[in-house]
Amino acid sequence: MKITDSHAHIFPAKIAEKATISIGQFYDLSMNGVGSAENLIKSGDEIGVSKYLVCSTATRPEQVHAINDFIHAEQSARPGVFYGFGTVHVGLDDIEAEVERIKVLGLYGIKLHPDFQQTNIDEGKMLPAYRLAAEYKLPILFHMGDPRYDYSAAWRLANLLEKVPTLTVIAAHLGGFMAWDEAMKYLPTGSVWTDTCSSMSMMSPDQAKILIEHFGFDRVMFASDFPMWKHQRQRDVFDSLGYSDEIRQAIYNDNFCHLLKIKD
Ligand SMILES: [Zn+2]
Questions:
Q1: Rounded distance from Cα 130 to ligand 1 centre (Å)
Q2: How far is the CA of 225 from the centre of ligand 1 (A)?
Q3: pTM confidence score
């Protein structure tokens, strides 16, 4: 069985420790190891992960350029293993220019964290950048949910998709961390992609199956949210749902390949 981790965070060595601690504090979680590329691969190797979507979000506009250069360097250092998603920030002078640069760098999409970035998903200032991402066929991976905040609410993503229907989006965490009822209520099915991280292991198996089947077996991708969670536990939880090999292969690997149009 081929396995891809479709949502993992890596940080430059210099800040990996600090960044890991601050994410842990934000979510009040103990993190599983510092978020370096080496530790990611070590954890993924335990369950045979062969490909990773790697990303890192900018909390300030001045970080964007360096983060995108870092993700590009990591992707270049591990071709066919790391698939990098760049990032942007609403505070950039020229958001579209950075989308353009992400395209030129050969990154595979864009990751945004509305809560860390304190920016509503459907923020009007972001629309031209979303339209450009749609034109370039760059999918956007949105952190979703978290009832403590409204920035990443499911209804905002639904609103954005009405404005930019050609945009491909991945609504992370089965559509919304700790806000799964809203995800089911507002997110359209059949077009929105999603991942299993920071969600599947926090609910009953029955609830996980309801959400997976809501989005569709061809739209759900296995993920760890490393360094939040270790891979082994995510694999154990997913396998315990009892899906057939065909469905497991789609969610473990093939859907990711279809989305990014890469060989499996
Ligand atoms: Zn994330």
A1: 18
A2: 6
A3: 0.94
